[in-house]
Amino acid sequence: MNTKPTTSQIASACPYCGVGCGVLITADGGHITGVRGDPDHPANFGRLCTKGATLNIASDQLGAARALYPVLRTDRDAERTRTTWDVALNHAANKFADVIQTYGADAVGIYISGQLSTEDYYVFNKLAKGLIATNNIDTNSRLCMSSAVSGYKATLGADAPPVCYEDIAHTQCLLIAGSNTAFAHPIIYRRIEDARKANPDLKVIVVDPRRTDTSREADLHLPILPGTDVALFNAMLHVMLWEDMVDPAYIAAHTNGFEELRATVREYSPESVAAVCGVPAADIITAARWFGKSPASLSMYCQGLNQSSHGTDKNAALINLHLATGQIGREGAGPFSLTGQPNAMGGREVGGMANLLSAHRDMANAEHRAEVAKLWGVDDVPATPGKSAMEMFEAAAAGEIKALWIICTNPAQSLPNQVMVRAALEKAEFVIVQEVNAYTETAAYADLLLPAAAWGEKECTVTNSERRITRLHAAISAPGECRPDWEIATDFAHRLGAKLGKSTANLFPYADVEAVFNEHRESTRGRDLDITGLTYALLDEQGPQQWPFPEGAIAGKVRLYVDGVYPTEDGRAKFANVRYLPTAEVIDARYPLHLNTGRLRDQWHGMSRTGMVARLYSHVESPVLSMHGDDMARRSLSTGDLVRVKSRRGELLIPVEMSDDMRIGQVYMPMHWGSRYMSGLGVNALTMDQRDPISKQPELKHAAVQVEKMALPWHMAVMRRDNAVARMLRIQPLLDQFGYASCGLYGRQNPVLVLRIANATPLPAELMKQIDALLDMQDETSIMRYDDAKRGVSKRVLVEDGRVVGVRLTGEIAARDWLKEMMAEGVEIAPLRNWVLAPLSTPPTGSGSRGRIVCNCLNISESQIVAAIAAGEDLPALQAGLKCGTECGSCVPELKRMVLLGKQGAA
Predict the structure, then answer these.
(1) Pairing, β 625-627 against β 666-670
(2) Of 426, 650, 882, 906, which one has the fewest beta carbons inside 10 Å?
(3) How do strand 666-670 and strand 593-598 relate by DSSP bridges?
């Protein structure tokens, strides 16, 4: 494979999930003009999901929100103003030095991100543990992968996924637990689809409380009650023992602790566990038989297991099944944690967490600490584990941590218990936010905002879920005064060292990013993840490589533990003797519903990238709470009603929808919407900070809530075309002034800002004027208007060059959807001029709204697909005619579901 950059195609990797898809970037004149999947990259072979396929658009649209220069405030009540890098970093170094010298090194905290490169991660880790002498550095990977890490270490001895993507094609039984892979990891799901086509006998089991696109296509769906995974896996092992499906020879030769676990799982009969999990005993038995009798069983799992107060136990209980059946270390078999971020794996490699050191070394191990100190040329590294993510913010809220540095992550949206997190950001004496997007929720709290280089502007490496390292090349120069993260940290380190009286010339000697990689590489020598055989040049010439790749090797290791030898003291894996424990927060009469959170197909995390791309709203336009119809009926709710969702930590107003995805007693809300996109603090106003005692990962997947109908009778819809992203940034600070509000984008070529508001009473006239001014809707000579003061109805339609470019509807908003489509498509107003102010839910031509877009790649709507299915088309016919599902393929599971529903309706 040749990934050397050229003037037309620059090799990179997608900055979204941990699949690590290869991307070829086309750039021109300092702008990324196009992206396509790298056909030679072994992670994706040219495929990209809807998010990856729009990276060029995200890069372009981000310009409106881009942090370009350092901005600083020296007083909390003052506005930040532009400053120089020298002034910014000297001020930061002074602040940090003052805190360290007054309160000690542990009075500072650094919060980093799985979206940083491995080199970035390495330098920040060294800054904290080598120079500042604190272990108070943690990563947002604590929110997604720390339970997977602790599960691997508890059983297999090291944080190392033993399988690879190729195993999907070779497995005979695939168990997917706690992951809607079709949405969260679409490119992996394409490989699953390919495997099922090639092998119709492949059995797929999905464990998920919700009915998802992934579970709908499974041969067996186990919709367990939230948090009961350990009980399920122990019951499966019970069946395997009872029916002699375990591998005694493998257990005897390669493991410890089986007898203790055997005694425990005797209590977990399928019949008793059925009541705990809420699934039939017969289905548990079937799952156990398929997994235990298969020649090759592969498991994939993600946040449903990880984001739990017992996440380590859940991960370990699943790995127990592999060890008991010998389903590990061979083709098509083994446990496979799906990584949530593009470089969560690379961060773990360099020890970028509060309890880890470089190259999978443990902080509690004195020899490991000595090895790192020698490598870095320091006397020692701190022995006491630092504060994990939530502990760090709790300490800041308590006044123990005085200075916070937050890099490439958005805790004011992504962490649970938002009230506490925001109190911490207010309480801290000095907050640095290092970001690409200057308008994240967290950026608002920054005393110093530092502009970082973005995707497509950096030279670096990242590691994906299958331990594969990819070299990224810069396609364009960073705009303004943006700098790579590792370079900012290095510059700061020299300045801080001078303030603290410490020499940093040898500690941070990096002339370029490759020097950082080379030092990281040396730190892995002799370790389980040894990459001493890798260089930037080799990665350029031979393409992405899996670790370990020691010096002298000609290739990385595809699968681990093939010989049954594990990275433990005695070379044996260890069974984890785990028991089922309930969720940290149980439902009761006051909070009777289980709240689950998760991902949308087309949005990414807190939407700081994807929230700028209008077409990525087309599948799901705005936040909504999904609920079972029976639960809605009990509360006299209909789809579209506003409800108040309340937990013991906070509350949120949101529209509700009836969904057959949900079990009775459960509700679901996507994780993405924060206070930049809706009124309130987003779903994490509700979630809890209770966490796993080992991994310290919060239980983001479950909270006990109540839901009640809210009457907000006054409605307003505002839409504005042209410069929609910039206009959205202007309007977002107003969202908390309304009873309920959401804002987003719509369309493709010329996006439209869409603002939805519901309030108990009409808005004050001054606030209406402010909205009009922010959206440039004040030119009365170009505005068509209608007012009915008696009915409280007011409408404004802004027309430019014969087309509608702005709409404000208050009191009556029936025409919102078709006017929105008319604006996005640039339809001439002349034929419809007499109707744009009318209370019509459909235009007078009789055509209805296109509705939700199912195929984002080709802009194919739900109404088009439904009409084609009604005419008798099946999936192949849809793909041949409308072409939907023929690009990235993310919509194929939904297309299959729509075809099935169409057949059922016709019958």
Answers:
(1) antiparallel
(2) 906
(3) parallel
